[in-house]
Queue: 2 jobs
Job 1
Amino acid sequence: MVETTPHVALNLGFLTVLQEGNCYVGGYLVTNQWGRPLEFRLTTSVQPNRVQQILYGDTLSPYICADLVGRTLVEKTSLTTHLIITDCQAVLDLRFHVEAPVVWLGPRDSSGAATPPGHCPLEGCRWPLYRHPRFPADSLSVASLLDRLDGVLDLTEPFARVREAIGEARKMGVTKSA
C-alpha cells in the first residue's frame, strides 16, 4: 500500500507597486502553484501631498508601498496566501502586517553584483530573492515553499501580467485617484 499525504494547495501572491511621478498604483495577483490566477486586486492612485513628502522623508516609499497599498490589497483579498512575492523593494515592510513570508524578487544581475546593503538573500535559490532582515525564520519556510513549486513557475512572469492588467485598468479609468 502506498502512503500518500495530501498537499494543501499552495497560493502565491504577486504584489507590485508602480510609481509614476508622485503617484503610486498597486496590483496584487494570487495564483495557485502553477501560476493560474485565483484573484486579482488593484488600488486607485495614491498621491502623497507635499507635507507628507516632507514629514515622511525617506520612509515615504515604504509607508505607501507596504502600509497603504500592500496591506490594503492583501487585506481585501479573500484568499490566504502562503508566500507573497514582490518586485518592489519597499513592499518588504509589508511583512510586519501579514502572517505569510514576504520576499523581494530583486533584479537579475549577470555581473554577480554584491547583495544590496541591508538585505538578506535566500541562499540556494535560482532567483535573486531577499527576505526582510527582521524575519530570519522566513528563509526556511520560503525555501520549503519554493521546493514545492518544483521549477514549474517562473516567478518573474506573473508580474508582467499584473503590470499589463494595471495598464488595461488605467485605460478604463479604474486606477484614477478618488
Job 2
Amino acid sequence: MLVPGSFAATDVAPVIDVMRSNPLACFVVTGDDGPVASHLPVVFATDDACDDLVGATLLGHMNRTNPQWASLAVGQQALVIFQGPHGYISPVVYGVVPAAPTWNFSVVHVHGTVRLLDPGKAALAVVRRTVQVLEGRFGLGWDMTDSLAYFERLEPGVGAFELRIDAVESMFKLSQDQPREVQEKVAAWFEGSTAGTHRELAGQMRTHLGIAAHTEADLDDA
C-alpha cells in the first residue's frame, strides 16, 4: 500500500483503535486460482495493550463450507484489511478554485501468518472471545452463558484460526495536505453530515489534526 509520509500514523494507538472499532475485516489469502477474500469478524486474542503490533495475535472464524477455508493451510500468509471511517469531499466544501474532489479515509493492512485451530474447545474459545469483544464494544450487555450449549451444537461448522501479526501498514488520509482553514471546513462538513461514517471521520480529523470541536453555530455556517 502506498502511504505518503504525511498520511502515515506516528503512533500505534490510532492504528489499534481502527482495528478494534471496525472488526468486520476483509481476510485475503492466495488460493490455487488467485486471491480469495472473506468478510468476517477479526479480534485481538487478548485485551493487553500493544506497544508494537508485530507479534500480537488476532482471532477469526468462518463457516467451514466457505471455499476459502479449504484453501487455508498452516503457515500461510494472509492480509487482513480493517476499513476505518471514510467520506467523499466535494470541491464545494473547500470554497477555493482550482480544486479537485478527493476521499478522506483511514485503513489498516495487517500481514500475518495463519495457524488453523482444531475443532472443539479451541474453535469454541475463538467464538466465545469474539462474542465477548463484540458484545462488550457494540452490544447491549448480553450474557452468553445460557447459549453455550447452542454454540457447541454449531461448533462442527466453525473454522477457527489464529493470525500472528508479521507487519502492519496504515494510512490516515485526513486532509493533512491542505491548509488549516480547508482542514477546518472539511471537518465541519463531515461533522454536519449524517451520511455513512462522516461524523466519526470528523472526530478522527479533530484528533489527528488537533482541530477544535465545532459548535452548532459553526455547523450552521458550514
